Amino acid sequence: MESDYQRLFIEETSFYNRIVLQTLLPNWIWESLPHFCQTWLRNYISATIVYFLSGFLWCFYIYYLKRNIYLSKDSIPSNKAMLLQMGIVIKAMPWYSAFPTISEYLVENGWTKCFPRASDIGWKSYIFNFAIYLIIVEVGVYWVHRLLHDVKPLYKYLHSIHHVYNKQNTLSPFASLAFHPLDGILQGMPHVVALFIVPIQFSVHILLIFLEAVWTTNIHDCVNLKHWPVMGSGYHTIHHITYKHNYGHFTVWMDWVFGTLLHPKDDYNESEEHEE
């Protein structure tokens, strides 16, 4: 039987569903759908909007408003390259949207350590648990990403799709989610694994998953800025060029610990040896 505590989670996801679906769709399209399908539809619409809105705004800023300031004309990707990246994401987005939908289903059924309100555990525990959650995500994403490179079949059949973009004039904010669907889900999996290890507020978990799209947009823009210890685009561009450095997520700490860190230079040598 559904507990009062579980009902709080369902009420929260239903609230998010109504905000998005009532705003953008006629009621008859979504009201008759099961709750799980409503949640998937909300995630699909929201993720698509976040991807295209953040991508277009950031491209407009760095390629036009700040043209030749952050990047030279030769470093700006062609419209064709960006359209190809968008095409990959459009095909993968239904599968990406299933990922947070399933994680919300696990939470709603009481199978994780999520809690609905910050008052449930107190602020000291809240902040401590949030820090542990981020550490788990940071460690998990680093190793998943590194294994996607080191395990040859995983690289060949999954991750190589993303690494077609290996030069400044091919990388763009729209490459941020241009993965094989399974690749993208694997790299997001630490967010779900952490739910079974450490108590975290449900709404924070959802927010962090969607912030991933904004974050990855930024680190694929090729702007050569070094903000240690943040894994900014200066570091991540090197990853796309060398294939063997800077696997980290939000920070470069894991790369520093495991010896895969390479700092940006003012004029990075794009001809440096990389995998074929």
In short:
The protein is mainly alpha-helical.
Architecture overview:
The protein has helices at residues 4-24, 27-30, 35-65, 79-108, 123-150, 152-157, 181-193, 202-219, 233-242, 253-258. It is mostly helical and 276 residues long. The protein has one domain (4-258).
Averaged pLDDT, please?
89
Question: How many runs of DSSP E, i.e. beta strands?
Answer: 0
Classify the beta-strand content into a percent band. under 5%
The arrangement of helices and strands along the chain is: HHHHHHHHHH
Structural class given helices, strands, pairing? mainly alpha
How widely separated are the two ends?
Answer: 55 Å
Any key phrases for this structure?
276 residues, 61% helix, mainly alpha
Q: What is the fold's blueprint, element by element?
A:
Elements: H1 4-24, H2 27-30, H3 35-65, H4 79-108, H5 123-150, H6 152-157, H7 181-193, H8 202-219, H9 233-242, H10 253-258
Helix pairs in contact: 1-3, 3-4, 3-8, 4-7, 5-7
